[in-house]
Amino acid sequence: MAIHKLLLLPGDGIGPEVMAQAKNVVAWLERNGIAKFAIEEDLVGGSAYEAHSKSISETAMDKALAADAILFGAVGGPKWDKVPYDVRPEAGLLRLRKDLALFANLRPAICYPALAESSSLKRELVDGLDLMIIRELTGGVYFGEPKTITDLGNGQKRAVDTQVYDTYEIERIARVAFELARKRRNKVTSMEKRNVMKTGVLWHEVVEQVHEREYKDVQLEHQLADAGGMQLVRNPKQFDVIVTDNLFGDMLSDVAAMLTGSLGMLPSASLGETDAKTKKRRALYEPVHGSAPDIAGKGTANPIAMIGSLGMAMRYSFGLGQAADMIEQAIAGALGKGLRTADIAGTGAKTIGTSEMGEAIIAELDGLAARA
Ligand code: IPM
Ligand code: MN
User: Fold this and answer.
1) pTM of the entire structure?
2) CATH topology of domain 111-262
């Protein structure tokens, strides 16, 4: 049996608490002979800053480069609000994305029937929702140069961020979207602002060309990103795969996440290019939610997005689709029994903590394994 090199980076805030539950699932997979892992662990974000005065150490970066997959918790918190900009906790995550060339960020938004009531939208609008946002992750305004604040000397300062996209960056993310759509409901919606931005003009043109050349069988539509945001809350079930740039993808994926009832539910995958020789691709899996400093250490955080991220690693990095299905079924099973962490409980409903939810998911996995 192949041994998968897995690097755990729990990070800050609720990161370590939810990671502890994912570790239990890793142990369960090993115990049941489903997968074998060589596991490493290291610091990232504020916790790395405390230890090394930077948001990720070179040792941790070396481990990341050597790993088959990285499981990432969350970074940041008010404690580090005042640290220098280039060593702020978020810089550790951005460096991992950039240095590992993780250009494709897959953010599914799935509404479990048991949770349709927790959504801020009416049940009929979100029940059965299953869409995928493909966010470009290594380009655009996040990384474009110049990125500066200059003192103009007259009591004014000028801040500049730069939005840049080259053809190849748009081509490769468009391909990820079209390939994925073929395995789903065969529809891609591309979002940009070509009415205002040159990057939007090029984005639209290149997505059209890739479609025309390679993916004519997939239905393609374009929406301006602002209108797309409106459509996401008006009629989200019209979407299958949405492909968009780094900044629009950051915003639209938070909106999409809330449609499903809670930010605590959603996993994500950040993938690099597949190596032609080894057929492997670099990958980092993380919950969409942040470090939630307000509830950190209380044992109340929802571990589902973290465990779901491990499920995505099984599917996209280790070729263990069946294990991924089991993890998803176990999550749905625990929810189906009415178990709720605070973030997804209706007002007045009984809630359970992080470790109880983790244990309930393991119990569901035991049930599934016994029936298999
Ligand atoms: C996300 C986060 C990050 C981003 C932050 C933590 C840098 O909001 O993954 O969506 O803006 O990409
Ligand atoms: Mn975000």
Assistant:
1) 0.95
2) Isopropylmalate Dehydrogenase (3.40.718)
Both structure tokens of 100: 């590992």
The three-state secondary structure class of 131 is strand
pLDDT in tens, 230-249: 999 999 999 999 999 999 99
Nearest to 69, CA basis, from 280, 359, 296:
280
pLDDT in tens, 135-165: 999 999 999 999 999 999 999 999 999 999 9
Query: Which one of the listed residues 23, 42, 165, 193 is annotated catalytic?
Result: 193
pLDDT lower than 50: segments of the chain:
none
Residues of the chain with CATH 3.40.718.10: 1-103+272-372, 111-262
What are the tens digits of pLDDT across the range 320-339?
999 999 999 999 999 999 99
User: Which one of 42, 240, 245, 250 is the catalytic residue?
Assistant: 250
CATH number of 1-103+272-372: 3.40.718.10
The single residue listed with the structure tokens 């190596």 is 275
- 237 noted as active-site residue: no
62 catalytic residue (yes or no): no
Sheet strands side by side (includes 69-74): 36-41, 3-11, 69-74, 283-287, 267-271, 104-110, 130-136, 241-244, 187-192, 219-224
SS3 of 231-283: the string is HHHHCHHHCCEEEECHHHHHHHHHHHHHHCCCHHHCEEEEECCCCCCCCCCCE
